[in-house]
Design brief:
mainly alpha
Length: 198
């Protein structure tokens, strides 16, 4: 008799435990199958460009500038660019054409170093080195200034070229202009993303 009562009590105690276990198992299954509980797929982290893709365009463009500082792009050779102007404006004086030629050459200085600055900033901003990523603006600007000075120094060894500190200044201004534009746009993107979050 006592054994029967004990068996009933143990059965009665194990029944709720069994039901609780079954209920917990069902809850776990529902949690796994519900879309809200499904573990989201790992978002693809944007891979940093390889070192070759970062620095190869910069090195190639710097090499082209070095080659252009030789006799290849001397004033006597680039004067051929004025031939279409002579055909379009036959009455233009040599002084006017000479001024246009001068402005075109200085615009070339500005543009080629503006492109060089963009490639330098592109390389340093995505660098694997924290120092380059954090101070990309100043490192790029220092690179532009040093390279422009070395470029004019290189021209001092070319008989058909005339080194000028003013050309180096134009080069540096071209690079600085690009870097300022890039930093301004970068800040606008950051402030815009921040305002959306608010």
């Amino acid at each position: 008799m006592v054994r029967k009562n004990l068996r009933r009590t143990t059965d009665g105690a194990s029944a709720p435990a069994h039901q609780c276990g079954k209920l917990a198992h069902q809850m776990i299954e529902e949690r796994i199958t519900t879309p809200s509980a499904i573990v989201p797929k790992a978002t693809t982290i944007a891979k940093r460009p390889s070192r070759f893709s970062r620095y190869a365009p910069l090195i190639i463009w710097a090499t082209l500038i070095f080659v252009g500082s030789s006799d290849l792009l001397a004033a006597s050779h680039t004067a051929g660019l004025l031939t279409p102007l002579r055909w379009l404006f036959p009455s233009a004086s040599e002084a006017t054409l000479g001024a246009i030629h001068f402005l075109l050459r200085k615009a070339g200085h500005f543009t080629e170093y503006a492109i060089l600055a963009w490639l330098a900033a592109r390389a340093f901003r995505s660098s694997s080195q924290n120092l380059f990523r954090e101070y990309w603006f100043w490192i790029s600007l220092a690179f532009i200034i040093v390279y422009s000075l070395s470029d004019e120094f290189h021209q001092s060894f070319v008989p058909s070229r005339t080194p000028s500190i003013y050309d180096s200044l134009i080069d540096s201004v071209g690079g600085l202009t690009t870097l300022v534009i890039m930093r301004t746009r970068r800040r606008r993107v950051r402030t815009g993303s921040g305002s959306h979050r608010i």
